[in-house]
Every structure is written in C-alpha cells, then in structure tokens.
Automatic annotation (TrEMBL):
InterPro entries hit by this protein: ZP-C, ZP-C_dom, ZP_dom
UniProt entry tagged with the keyword Signal: yes
Keywords associated with the record: Disulfide bond, Signal
Domain ZP span(s) in chain numbering: 1-109
PANTHER family with a match to the protein in the record: CUB AND ZONA PELLUCIDA-LIKE DOMAIN-CONTAINING PROTEIN 1, ENDOGLIN/TGF-BETA RECEPTOR TYPE III
Naturally occurring in which organism (per UniProt): Catharus fuscescens (Veery)
Protein name: DMBT1 protein
Pfam families: Zona_pellucida
Gene3D superfamilies referenced in this protein's UniProt entry, alphabetically: Zona pellucida, ZP-C domain (2.60.40.4100)
Highest rank taxon of the organism: Eukaryota
Length: 116
C-alpha cells in the first residue's frame, strides 16, 4: 500500500521489461475502485481510450519510449472506503509505428444516431 493525503499529487510510471528494444508503451485506460477484486460495480475513470476523464489526470513525457508516466490528485470514494485500487490497461506497440494505437493518443468514439 501507498499512503497519501487527499488531493496530494500522485505520480506513476509503467515500465516495459523486454529484450526487444523496438517496443513502446501507452496508457490507454485507468480506473479506480474501492474494491481490489471488482472493477465494475463502483469505479472512477481516470482515463479512457487515451482520453483524460479526470481533470487532474496528466500524462508526462518520458525519457524512454518503453516507459509511460502519468499523475493525478489523490481522492476517496465518499469517505466510506479506506482504500482506492487502480487498474490500468496499457498498450504495447512497435516503436515508431505511427499507425499503431500507441501513437493515436486520445480516441473518442462518437455514438451515431439511428434513423427511423
């Protein structure tokens, strides 16, 4: 566990450990939950499809392409839960494959209206 005060800035880093130097990593989706085994019932989205959902979520530049860095302000779930757990989905792509998901950034999907 990592103990922080409310609204304290948290900084996280995800590193890809591979002998293949031609890979890069991208943070696609991160959600928080008060339950470490249930990330569906009560969740808070920090980022989804590479788009920040939380106004304090910030991606940071990294010195290496196999490292992703980001941060956000600490929060709680209505003071009823003593802990917050994170689950992040990362995408691994070929380095400098600019058509890959890693280089697309925020991908917002729009719903189309159905005609009668």
């Amino acid at each position: 566990p990592y103990y922080v005060d409310m609204d304290q800035n948290l900084f996280l880093q995800a590193s890809l450990h591979s002998s293949d130097q031609n890979l890069t990593v991208f943070v696609d989706t991160c959600v928080a939950s008060p339950n470490s085994s249930d990330f569906r019932a009560l969740v808070y989205e920090l980022t989804k499809s590479g788009c920040a959902s939380d106004p304090t979520y910030t991606p940071f530049p990294s010195p290496r392409h196999d490292v992703a860095r980001f941060g956000f302000n600490a929060f709680s779930f209505v003071n009823r839960f003593p802990s917050v757990f994170l689950r992040c989905e990362l995408v691994v792509c070929s380095y400098q494959d600019y058509s890959s998901r890693c280089y697309q950034g925020c991908v917002s999907r729009f719903k189309r209206s159905a005609d009668s």
